[in-house]
């Protein structure tokens, strides 16, 4: 891919992201989307914490 085509693709992707953000900020469902995103983020954080704890426990068991 040439430099110019990469620049065009980057511009198009940036414009699409800008449109999506603009739509999101002006949407009536913004609060619903934020709530869903926060819920999913919290679930993901809990999964990572659990995996981290399991890994720490496994390491501790191997060292003792």
Describe the structure.
This protein has 64 residues and is mainly alpha-helical. It has one domain. 91% of the residues lie in helices and 0% in strands. The longest helix has 34 residues. It is flat. The termini are far apart. Keywords: Membrane, Transmembrane, Transmembrane helix.
List the helices and strands and how they pair.
Layout: H1 3-26, H2 30-63
List keywords for this structure.
2 helices; mainly alpha; 64 residues; transmembrane; membrane; transmembrane helix
Structural class computed from helices and strand pairing: mainly alpha
In the predicted model, the low-confidence regions spanning at least 5 consecutive residues are: none
- Helix count equals 2
| Percent helix range | over 70%
Protein name: YtxH-like protein
Keywords: Membrane, Transmembrane, Transmembrane helix
Transmembrane segments: 7-25
In short:
Helices cover 91% and strands 0% of the residues. The protein is mainly α and 64 residues long.
């Amino acid at each position: 891919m040439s430099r110019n085509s990469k620049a065009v693709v980057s511009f198009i992707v940036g414009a699409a992201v800008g449109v999506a953000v603009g739509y999101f900020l002006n949407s009536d469902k913004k609060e619903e989307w934020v709530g869903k995103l926060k819920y999913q983020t919290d679930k993901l954080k809990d999964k990572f914490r659990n995996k981290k704890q399991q890994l720490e426990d496994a390491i501790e068991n191997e060292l003792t």
